[in-house]
Amino acid sequence: MKQFYIQFGENIARIHEWGDKNNPQIICFHGLGSTSLSFIEVAESLKHKYHILSFDLPGHGKSGAFKTDEEYGADHLVKWVIELIERIGEDSFHILAHSWGASVALHYAAECPEKVDKMLLLDGGYHNFEMEYNYFTELVKSKKIDYKPMCSLEETIKWYENDFDEFIFDDKSSFLEAEKANHRRTPELREVAIYDLMREEGSKIHFHATGNTARGVIKFQYHSQQTLKFSQLKSEILLIYVDHPDHYFDIRKLMVKTFEQKVKVTTKVYRHTTHMVHWDRPHETIEEIKNWFK
Questions:
Q1: What is the pLDDT of residues 235-276, one digit of tens each?
Q2: Euclidean distance between CA atoms 291 and 40, whole angstroms
Q3: Alpha carbon distance 108, 212 (integer Å)
Q4: Longest dimension (CA), the chain
Q5: At what angle do helices 211-227 and 100-111 cross, to 10 degrees?
Q6: Please, are residues 119 and 264 in contact by the beta-carbon 8 Å criterion?
Q7: What is the pLDDT, as a whole number, of residue 220?
Q8: 0.85 exceeded by the pTM?
Q9: pLDDT tens string 134-161
Q10: For tag attachment on the chain, is the N or C end more exposed, with fewer CB atoms within 10 Å?
């Protein structure tokens, strides 16, 4: 694994690289709160077959953050991605993307369809937050559920701002143990990815991304189905979505169905799997990559 940085204009981005440049290229887009090392298990397993690049999106890992919420909007963010990939991408390549990264990757693919061969989306790109909010609101009104999951824009922003800014520990080992508790398995490579989530500030260990970044990203996500130019997507797309938590599965299926009406896509559901597909099911994810990108 190699780490390097790219400076373009006022921006700086960190990239991790695996494999031989003569092999087919995969460019990875991580999700909100993750870093480029989110894909370390997958990349280490596939580095002899592919040339893999995974970069930190703005405000994540070691890539510089944007100053305003507006800069995390589709136009500015996609321009950032285009400028970066012009410097690191081949003439054409595959895309592997998770969560928010899948939404960003779709926006990129719509702007640069000639660059993207195939896409594999890990529980991302199909989310429609307005649809989700209306769905749960109706369930509450009809008394089919006695709770209302957090899904309005304001509620989601507040939760993420607090979650990111208040995730503070006295030392790295405490941070590591707290983060490990959120996942089903933590092999050695996973710990490398978790350490990458840490940011030292004074005598404390903070989460690498800030509440300001989270707010900008959530705003992008809430408008992503309106800003995405579906008609310009030309790549073959495989979407893997999940069934956990259980009370979100029905709305996930509805959102996937709506997504399928807008773009040609192959879909597959992973049962008993959380949103972190490639962490819960790394071996299956690796096999999907090899079969889809062959």
A1: 999 999 999 998 889 999 999 999 999 999 999 999 999 999
A2: 19
A3: 23
A4: 58
A5: 50
A6: no
A7: 98
A8: yes
A9: 999 888 888 888 777 767 899 999 999 9
A10: C
The one-character DSSP state at 24 is P
164-221 tens-digit pLDDT: 999 999 999 999 999 999 888 788 899 999 999 999 999 999 999 999 999 999 999 9
Q: Are 172 and 206 in contact (CB under 8 A)?
A: no
| Strands 236-242 and 116-122, sheet pairing | parallel
Tell me the CA end-to-end span of the chain in Å, nearest whole number: 23
Which of 102, 105, 121, 123 lies closest to 113, judged by CA?
Answer: 105
Q: At 204, which amino acid appears?
A: K
> d(Cα 44, Cα 18) in Å, to the nearest integer?
7
Strand order in the sheet with 168-169: 168-169, 204-207, 198-201
- What strands lie across the sheet with 2-8, from one edge to the other? 2-8, 11-18, 51-55, 25-29, 93-98, 116-122, 236-242, 266-270
For residues 154 and 14, give the distance between their C-alpha atoms in angstroms, rounded to a whole number: 31
3-class secondary-structure state, position 139? helix
* The residue count for the chain: 294
Question: Can you tell me whether residue 153 is helix, strand or coil?
Answer: helix
Contacts 24+ apart (CB under 8 A), 129-133: 129/153, 129/156, 129/221, 129/222, 130/222, 130/225, 131/251, 131/254, 131/255, 131/258, 132/251, 132/255
Pairing of β 25-29 and β 11-18? unpaired
Residue 80 corresponds to which amino acid?
A: W
